[in-house]
Amino acid sequence: MRAVKAYKNNEFLMSEEARSVRILCEYLEPERRFRLNGVRNTLPFFGSARLKPGVGADGRDWYMEAARLAERVAQWTLDTHSAEDRFYICTGGGPGVMEAAHTGGARVDAKLNIGLNISLPFEQHLNPYVETRQAYQFHYFFMRKFWLVRLARGAVFFPGGFGTLDELFELLTLTQTGKVERIPIVLYGRAFWEGLVNFALLKERGLISPEDVELFHLCDSVDEAFALLQAGLQPLPPGAV
């Protein structure tokens, strides 16, 4: 009887001791696939998985607006950028705002959709607008968040809960501290964001610098958000990694 090689030993690979190997896989496998698929620039859409199509209690149809914005971006990048410089509509791959963005992207070309899904006991499943070659499945939240930002050349945040807030403030912190290059960060839905986070109070109390409130843009319409993205999105320079 021959011994099993360590890298084929599934019991070991799923063990506590091999956690670092699994984490490394969630870094290297997506990196390889992005490179093979020619993906260098992404535009992630963030927002609640719980938002459904239709007008909500606040009088807004966030699903429809996210779909329209993603469609505008997808059509623009397809019309004006080379294949190497195109911006891909990237989300967490689930329902709600994530599905809405991919619905809009698929109206132009589903190949522009990227879904970075996460294994959860509830709520999360891969939406049907992401093709298999552009679908990724993560176990570790921090690795998924890393890839949501790693290739991002901009970011759009629709109303959301704990997960959306976590992703927003991590990106703002990374930008504030110079850990990532400054990119256009769009907070969509002025009344929601201003009602949720008192950025002015943070500045007034000296808890953030005055210039930190310039790290993001508040907007309230598809036209306004698209204009901000169109003006601010820049493809990764040739040869950059």
UniProtKB/TrEMBL annotation:
Q: Which InterPro entries match?
A: LOG_fam (IPR031100), LOG_family_nucleotidases (IPR052341)
What organism does this protein naturally occur in?
Solimonas aquatica
**Annotated signal peptide:** none
Question: Mind telling me which GO cellular component terms the entry cites?
Answer: cytosol
- Which Pfam families does its entry note? Lysine_decarbox (PF03641)
- Highest taxon of the lineage: Bacteria
Q: Name one GO molecular function term.
A: AMP nucleosidase activity
Q: What chemistry does it catalyse, as a reaction equation?
A: AMP + H2O = D-ribose 5-phosphate + adenine
What broad class of enzyme is this?
Answer: hydrolase
Q: Kindly give the SUPFAM superfamilies that the UniProt entry links to this protein.
A: MCP/YpsA-like
Stated name of the protein: AMP nucleosidase
